Amino acid sequence: MTADAEDRALKARKERERHELYALDVFGVERHSAPGIEEHAERLEVACLSGRAMAMRSSLAPDTVPRFTEAEQPSFVLGARDGEFDPEPTPHDGGHATERPEREKERLARVPPRLFLSG
């Protein structure tokens, strides 16, 4: 199989997985949120779906339910842990343009050296 054919096959498989994921009925699935948050408070709720997929929703918009395949989860979780989804600091909220690169350096300094080793 050529590289182009492999790319097309991979894209088709991912599209099928996404279609199957969004075809799942998420009504009534057990959802979890951070401990200590009151039931009526705004919160993020996470549900585990079949095939190790997950769905999330805001308690304020329960009909909007983004879903993540098993392959997408590590990227999302690591990005959230690393602050990739944090708002960019702006002069309007007291931030400075140099804060984000500094935070990146601090974060990389905390990464154990073994994560950078190959093999």
Q: How is this fold's topology laid out?
A:
Elements: H1 3-23, E1 31-32, E2 44-48, E3 54-58, E4 67-68, H2 73-81, H3 99-110
Antiparallel strand pairs: 1-2, 2-3, 3-4
What is the spatial order of strands in the main beta sheet? 1-2-3-4
Task: Determine the N-to-C terminus distance.
Answer: 27 Å
Low-confidence stretches: 111-119
Largest sheet features: 4 strands, antiparallel
What shape does the CA trace take?
flat
Using only C-alpha atoms, the radius of gyration works out to: 19 Å
Number of helices: 3
SSE pattern: HEEEEHH
Helix % is: 25-40%
Q: What is the average of the pLDDT values? A: 77
**Structural class computed from helices and strand pairing:** alpha+beta
Q: Tell how many strands the DSSP assignment holds.
A: 4
Q: Tell me the strand percentage band.
A: 5-15%
Verbal overview:
With 119 residues, the protein is an alpha+beta fold. The chain is built from 3 helices and 4 strands; from the N terminus they run αββββαα. The two termini are 27 Å apart. The C terminus is likely disordered.
Question: Summary?
Answer:
The chain has helices spanning 3-23, 73-81, 99-110; strands at 31-32, 44-48, 54-58, 67-68.
Descriptors:
3 helices; four-stranded antiparallel beta sheet; 119 residues; alpha+beta
